[in-house]
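Page 37, continued from 36.
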């Protein structure tokens, strides 16, 4: 008999390591063995998206992982809407963008961390502010302290995959930095804790 949880944890771990083909294989196994669980098909979709846009796939994976526990059906619908929008459904895309708070950075590709902190204040939480911008805008980090603050908040709010992406992206600038090592360790501990739930 297949251990469903162990297989899912293994698949998610492969996804986070960007081993998308291997992850897809496991998600497909889960889908065929547990067809009633719609979640597995969504993860397989993320692997497919990763072939075209790794960053987008990772962001969607993170977002889905965070909101699925609150309401799985709503989380699946949201992800499907976003995917349909990226597949060229312009009206749908415009609707999603309109839904994102109008105060959110006016169609910029990047938001300065200072401005992002103001957005957190106006939205009342890091998670909501980050969800507002995660698919449309990058956070422009201008110094080390902001970088550590931002990645720590990502980890605290369960955006672990995105945190890994930022750490990996900046690792060459801060290699062997004690703070970077601490953040990686914090992520590892969170992932271990999540896998043993």
């Amino acid at each position: 008999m297949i251990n469903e949880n162990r297989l899912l944890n293994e698949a998610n771990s492969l996804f986070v390591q960007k081993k998308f083909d291997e992850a897809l294989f496991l998600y497909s196994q889960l889908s065929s063995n547990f067809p009633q669980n719609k979640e597995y098909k969504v993860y397989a979709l993320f692997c497919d998206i990763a072939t075209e846009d790794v960053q987008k796939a990772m962001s969607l994976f993170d977002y889905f992982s965070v909101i699925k526990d609150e309401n799985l059906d709503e989380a699946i619908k949201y992800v499907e809407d976003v995917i349909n929008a990226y597949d060229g459904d312009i009206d749908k895309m415009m609707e999603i963008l309109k839904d994102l708070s109008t105060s959110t950075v006016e169609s910029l590709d990047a938001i300065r961390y200072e401005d992002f902190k103001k957005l957190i204040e106006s939205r009342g939480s890091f998670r909501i502010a980050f969800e507002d911008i995660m698919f449309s805008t990058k956070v422009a980090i201008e110094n080390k302290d902001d970088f550590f603050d931002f990645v720590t908040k990502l980890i605290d709010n369960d955006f672990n995959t995105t945190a890994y992406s930022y750490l990996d992206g900046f690792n060459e600038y801060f290699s062997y930095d004690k703070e970077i090592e601490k953040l990686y360790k914090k992520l590892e501990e969170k992932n271990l804790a999540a896998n043993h739930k």
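The CA atoms of residues 27 and 33 lie 10 Å apart. Flag for discussion at group meeting. Strands lie at 110-112, 138-140.
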